[in-house]
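tool=predict chain=A
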Amino acid sequence: MSASVELVPLFDPTLDRVGFPLDHPYVERVYCSVLGPSSVLLLRRIGELFAEHPTGARVDLVDLSRSLGLGVRADAAEVGRNSVLRKTMDRLVHFNMAAWRGEDRLAIHPKVPAVERGRLGRLPDSVLTDHRRLLKDHLDGLAARSEGRHLEPAGRTPTTADRAARESPVAARLRAFGSASIDPRIVAR
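tool=predict ok
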């Protein structure tokens, strides 16, 4: 395996619409039981990489492996085929989260699907509970956005800044002119 690999996004129109972003709590809380901790940690790191480099980037494999705690000597020149990092990458491929596009190019989905129905029975009860709750919240959020509504994440009280960001331009103007008693639901109509 070469000393570096290019990590690029692998797009799927369905996942782009309804999948969980790599920084979503679902990835850690549910996929950790399926993929294992090193694969989830790699997905999280790739999510950060894609946030900074939307078209992907070339990464040093020794540095990546060491930064993830996957045990490569500091003086190593490259990561071997039997290394923990390579096995972690291959696990993502096995579970259709990624695909090799050559010897030194790995394409990874920037969003992941919900765990397949057939795997749900193998999840611990606590993880299955998280799966159901996080999936429901995610689907409710998708439905709300498609209807032009905004849902607050569970357990979070909207701040004044949050409300202002969703406020209509007319309501914001009225508020700016001192009409604090205007009901935003009336303005929205």
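Residues 82 and 176 are 63 Å apart (CA to CA). The mean pLDDT is 83.
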